[in-house]
């Protein structure tokens, strides 16, 4: 039997970075998924990992994994547990032995997260594991969270911690307490990749839809507004862990100024959630709300620039969309990656096409995605 789990990426509508420091963010899932498939093996004693998006394959014998992790006693745990620094060093040994290419070393933390979640949830069972994603990796659309959520979901589905009806056909959902467990394990994986994640990305990937998130607490937001965003990938590589660490360093250098900026960002997130929950009584009301969101995005972007997470490529997208009287802001950690441009309901397809073409002339790639769909899902295939 093969178990497959898929988890969506996300956009942060308001409040990235501020949320790491206990201020509110508003985020939504998007209909682009990361998919993990796991097939337990009985023919040999290896754990094989195929990372299709980054073109890397790994194979460890269960004996070797046991040997390297032996100082932990048994890593199995029915409750989500953090990976210690000492264990990360041991996991790095397992990865180094497979001669990880120097040019892709930034991606190694995802493999550590894999090994930690795998051995913690499933123990030392041989299997073939494959991951592929519709999300750009490391571009602000929550690829790390979708990776950790879909992996945790597939592993838990094979473990004794969760009792699912394996005879179900097609995609099915976890119940609330199972989804909570998936989310907690995924957060442990995110910690290995991000250093200090707020938990917003794994929560929105697990539960889907639109959420508000503050100090580790998620609130569901009932969005009543048709939201359309153009997502532009600047293709400038960046690393969430480094950007989050830079913001924290700036906060410790300028605590009062940073506190004011983060408070302002929180006010923007709160207003975002109020606006999208309100029911538009007519077109006039809808355009007035869209205009408010446009201004909130402009302000949020200005504040993100002030905390040091914008980038020349992001500013380029802002200037270009401004020519079409459209507002944009970075989404996720910034420093490159993806930028959101709000597409109001009245805008014509022709204008969008022209904007996309102009953005394309800089080497950027723009696309739209469905906003606010389901969270993590699981499916079982008995044919293999
Ligand atoms: N499909 C994938 N295959 C392998 N590794 C992945 C995949 N998706 C994510 N990762 C891991 O996640 C890391 C990227 O995470 P990072 O948090 O920097 O970016 P992001 O999650 O895309 O953006 P943000 O956190 O701003 O939303 C990669 O370096 C890799 O370790
Ligand atoms: C930059 C950040 O706020 C969002 C990344 O999508 C980090 C986090 O919340 O963990
Ligand atoms: Mg991430």
Number of discrete domains: 2
What's the shape?
globular
Rg, please? Answer: 21 Å
Order of helices and strands: EEEEHHHEHHHEEEHHHHEEHEE
Bound molecules: adenosine-5'-triphosphate, (R)-mevalonate, magnesium ion
Helix content: 40-55%
Number of strands: 12
How widely separated are the two ends?
Answer: 6 Å
The amount of beta strand, in percent, is 15-25%
**How many helices?**
11
Mean pLDDT: 95
Largest sheet: 8 strands, mixed
Question: According to CATH, what is the topology of the largest domain?
Answer: Ribosomal Protein S5, domain 2
What is the SS-derived class?
Answer: alpha+beta
Q: What are the key terms here?
A:
single chain; 384 residues; alpha+beta; Ribosomal Protein S5, domain 2; Alpha-Beta Plaits; 2 domains; 8-stranded mixed sheet; 4-stranded antiparallel sheet; 12 strands; globular; binds adenosine-5'-triphosphate; binds (R)-mevalonate; binds magnesium ion; GHMP_kinase_C_dom
How would you describe what is shown here?
The chain is of the alpha+beta class and 384 residues long. The protein has two domains: 2-219 and 372-381, 2-Layer Sandwich (Ribosomal Protein S5, domain 2), CATH 3.30.230.10; 223-368, Alpha-Beta Plaits (2-Layer Sandwich), CATH 3.30.70. It has eleven helices and twelve strands. The protein has helices at residues 62-68, 85-96, 108-121, 143-158, 176-194, 200-207, 240-253, 255-277, 283-306, 312-322, 349-360, and strands at 2-14, 25-40, 46-51, 56-61, 127-133, 210-214, 217-221, 229-233, 328-330, 338-342, 365-368, 377-381. The strands form two sheets. Strands 1, 2, 3, 4, 5, 6, 7 and 12 form an eight-stranded mixed β-sheet that branches. Strands 9-10-8-11 form a four-stranded antiparallel β-sheet. α2 (85-96) crosses α3 (108-121), α5 packs antiparallel against α6 and α8 (255-277) runs antiparallel to α9 (283-306). Bound molecules: adenosine-5'-triphosphate, (R)-mevalonate and magnesium ion.
